[in-house]
Fold GH18 domain-containing protein.
Amino acid sequence: MASHKLVHLLPIIVLITIPTGYVMASPPAIKAAYWPSWIETFPPSAIDTTLFTHIFYAFLLPSNVTFKFEVSDSTASQLKNFTGTLHQKNPPVKTLVSFGGGGSDPKLFARMVSNKGSRNIFIDSAIELARTYGFDGLDLDWEFPKNPEEMASLGQLFKEWRVAIKKEAKSTHRAPLLLTAAVYFSVDFQWNGIYRKYPVESIAESLDWVNAMCFDYRGSWDTSATGAHAALYDPNSNISTSYGLRSWVRAGVPRNMVVMGLPLYGRTWQLKDPKVNGIGAPATGVGPGDDGVLIFSEVEKFNKENGATVVYDAKTVSTYSYTGTSWIGYDDSQSTTVKLKFAQALGLRGYFFWALSYDSDWEISKQASRAWVIG
């Protein structure tokens, strides 16, 4: 997962018509979260599996030379502990291993997908890794393909990956591995003057679902004004969760293949004038936290210790707090619940969090699990 720079999105004009009387079967809801493998103080044994259906191991990378996965002894031990612990929990959850992440080099995946030979090496190694360490599925978090050519190659990867998964499952008489991808909040976008769009046809045919990263719309890359970094609505632009999720549906990805991303952290700014403290208020720099980021448990602690004023903003469906010149934009239980109701009304598959261990005593995770009503 990574910071999403301010972008201007082009309008999407593809419309999907569903025949009258057509009823789609409802697959099981997704209640997922990514587990940051580098946080040693939050082992898999600490995860409350009553709140989730799927947990993603974040992250692994293939060799940038061979495109195979070379797992060290310590990582192998961690992988086995991750799947073993979560499969033995009551209730057990499905486990997926995620490749990439916001901190990885996007050029690695660009090189890998550029020809069939390297794609096959990567695919075979990924499947072998998942089976060796007991994972139920595979997830690709490439942030982000930079042009139409890379998007087309990504589409080829997904198609070939699905074929390989089916073949492996048939030959081993095992359930097919799940295949998912973490994607930009919108199906198409323009960065640095280059328009690109995800390979919708390949995604619809090849993946089980996509995790739309509906956060980081605002952040430390723009310190001129405060912002709701995961706004459901934005009255001034199409950089919003509602726009992004609808764009995936309008482009042709089935609603039951779209999963909404939710942040368990906030972004912070320093106000120019403490008396001007709403969303969009003038700012002079980042606020408390590491590069202007506080995880949710830290937000709650900061608010309590500093007597901060907490405001729910219905216009954007977000929450913010301020005290003195410090300003934090984030999601709490209230804004999360409204977002989930929106996602359910849109007919989406479920939600995921970035990231496990950022919550405060499972506060938001519990509320989300209750709010996503089945049936």
Notes: DSSP finds nine helices and 16 strands in the chain. Confidence is low (pLDDT under 50) at residues 2-24.
